[in-house]
Design brief:
The protein has helices at about 15-30, 40-55, 80. It is mostly helical and about 90 residues long. The chain is built from three helices and no strands.
Length: about 90
């Protein structure tokens, strides 16, 4: 039997409106699209975006993994919120 992969935990932060849309999408189409949980939906969307970024910024190759604890934890600062992409 293959060994299960270790799961790393991330906590994305959503506005109330974004969170409502994620829940609504999952309830409306999650089962039909094969998502067993909201986490499955979020992982699928995130990995789709990671692959797009790899194609655009890394010649389509995977990046070397970055260890946990490398990035600054927590929510975005007010300055970061001012510069985020609209519609996220």
């Amino acid at each position: 039997m293959p060994k299960a992969k270790k799961v790393a935990a991330f906590t994305p932060y959503y506005t109330e409106e974004q969170a409502g849309q994620v829940r609504a999408a999952f309830l409306a189409a999650g089962e039909a699209e094969g998502f067993a949980s909201i986490s499955d939906l979020i992982v699928a969307g995130t990995m789709r975006e990671v692959r797009r970024l790899q194609r655009r910024h890394n010649e389509g190759r995977k990046w070397d993994p970055v260890p946990a604890g490398t990035l600054r934890p927590g929510q975005r600062t007010r300055g970061e919120l001012q510069h985020r992409k609209e519609g996220l």
